[in-house]
Write a structure and sequence with these properties.
Low-confidence stretches: 1-32
Strand content: 15-25%
Mean pLDDT: 92
Radius of gyration: 22 Å
CATH class: Alpha Beta
Number of helices: 14
Shape: globular
CATH superfamily: Metal-dependent hydrolases
Distance between the termini: 44 Å
Number of domains: 1
Helix content: 25-40%
Structural class: alpha/beta
Largest sheet: 7 strands, parallel
CATH topology: TIM Barrel
Number of strands: 19
């Protein structure tokens, strides 16, 4: 017991030390930056689904792409700084359309899953996360992710949308802020709320308006209907929330993992479903409804497997994706030993494993059907949940998309163009095209040969500047 507690305390100390060492970043964007940079020689896969362009040239002025195309069609300005990329591939910066900065990737950030507050007081965990979001930002950039959609968290996660005003090395963020919840969920702090109970229409109206006034990019509903609740009354509140959201001018994001709830969510006016349907296979009626509504479907196929991995204490080495991009404090938490009195019995872990396998199989089959039906599919990992770490977990999600029958090219579009659409930034990023923000990734291997090659990150350019590895 003493050894377990000491390892847990050591992990927390490591995170605090790393947060202090990393600081807040000082590379602020320069006003009127008109520097011209040219990246030439790579094979360009631009994220639109078009054929790759060999021996490409990308001209960047300031933070935007001024010209892009084959070398024989693009003039290189005399004053440009040229970077040669022969033998490499360039793709748009990856976009994770489902993350939570207010969760750590371990149980300390989700005491509802395993209550370790006796070792990690929850208010202290949240304060630590709020004070050091650059740790997760660095993990994203290292993994080739240049933009994220935080779809549910404390009020301070909305403020991360402005972080790049003072830190040019911070990942781009769109955020919904607190979740409107159909159940009175307790996972909040004394000073702030990440779940706001939809008790009645007045509570819903107040929550939507305050969240919109704070500057959120969208409104998120956590649509959970326990058997004891009046599902019709809950649906009425969801519909009311949708109307209030539309009146605010914001898109509506809904968490709905059951077929009935997902169908109702689309009918109510959801723009994005974050989580696929996992309880049963989707039917033709759902597919037609989702396609006609123009819904964006973010399936998050692998998040429950992350819980199983940390319950099973597989450690960093046992995760199904490389962890080199993850900060040392988080790595220490994943490798720490759970206190004996809190370890789930073996039979419980076994039953949960069976549940995870069934849900994953249904989720993959539903993604296959959704994709084949022509519904827009975007990639999101649900990072921050235990075992789904900020940054590299997106690569395991990409593998699952490929298992669902999507080609590597289709996986790339889901992780770039479509994910940018999901976060509301489709006109600004997600593809390497003239006029868009100069966010792209240089890979060592062909992303069209295998989605696993998205892991082969050689360097990352954000707003026209190399941000990974550090210069």
């Amino acid at each position: 017991m003493t050894g377990a507690v000491s390892k847990l305390k050591l992990a927390a100390v490591l995170i605090l030390l790393l947060a202090s060492a990393c600081g807040t970043g000082t590379d602020a964007p320069e006003a009127g930056d008109d520097v011209v940079r040219v990246y030439r020689g790579a094979t360009l896969v631009d994220g639109t689904g078009a054929d790759p362009v060999e021996n490409s040239v990308i001209v960047v002025r300031g933070d935007r792409i001024e010209a892009v195309g084959p070398a024989d069609a693009i003039a290189i300005p005399d004053s440009a700084a040229v970077e040669q990329l022969e033998g490499m591939w360039v793709i748009p910066g990856l976009v994770d359309a489902h993350v939570h900065f207010g969760q750590s990737g371990w149980f300390d950030g989700r005491p509802d899953a395993l209550d370790l507050r006796g070792y990690h007081p929850y208010d202290e965990v949240v304060s630590r996360l709020a004070a050091s979001p650059e740790l997760f930002s660095d993990a994203y950039l290292c993994s080739g992710v240049t933009s994220v959609f935080d779809v549910g968290g404390y009020g301070w996660t909305v403020d991360l949308q402005n972080r790049r005003e003072t830190d040019a090395r911070f990942v781009r963020v769109a955020a919904t802020g607190p979740l409107l919840s159909t159940i009175d969920f307790w996972l909040n702090t004394e000073d702030d709320r990440q779940f706001i109970f939809m008790a009645d229409s007045a509570a819903v109206r107040d929550a939507v308006r305050k969240t919109a006034d704070r500057g959120a990019a969208a409104i998120k509903i956590w649509y959970i209907v326990p058997p004891a609740q009046d599902s019709a009354a809950v649906l009425d509140l969801v519909r009311y929330a949708a109307r209030e959201t539309k009146a605010s001018g914001l898109p509506l994001v809904i968490h709905a993992t059951g077929l009935w709830e997902a169908t109702a969510a689309i009918k109510a006016g959801a723009d994005v479903l974050v989580h696929g349907v996992f309880d049963v296979e989707v039917d033709d009626g759902f597919l037609e409804l989702a396609r006609d509504a123009g819904i964006i479907y973010v399936p998050t196929l692998t998040v429950t497997e992350g819980y199983l991995n940390v319950f099973s204490q597989v450690g960093m080495e046992g995760l199904p994706y490389p962890g080199a991009c993850v900060d040392e404090g988080t790595r220490a938490l994943l490798d720490s030993e759970l206190p004996a009195e809190w370890r789930p019995p073996g039979e419980v872990v076994t039953r949960y494993g069976e549940f995870v396998a069934t849900n994953r199989a249904i989720g993959i089959e539903n993604l296959r059907r959704v994709h084949e039906a022509g519904i827009t599919v975007a990639m999101g990992s649900d990072a921050g949940n235990p075992g789904t770490l900020h940054g590299p977990s997106i690569h395991y999600e990409a593998q699952a998309f490929q298992e669902a029958g999507m080609s590597a090219a289709e996986v790339l579009v889901a992780a770039t163009r479509n994910a940018a659409l999901a976060m509301g930034w489709g006109t600004e990023l997600g593809t390497v095209e003239e006029g868009k923000l100069a966010d792209f990734v240089v890979l060592r291997a062909d992303p069209l040969a295998d989605a696993a090659n998205l892991r082969e990150v050689a360097r990352v350019v954000l707003g026209g500047r190399r941000v990974w590895p550090l210069e």
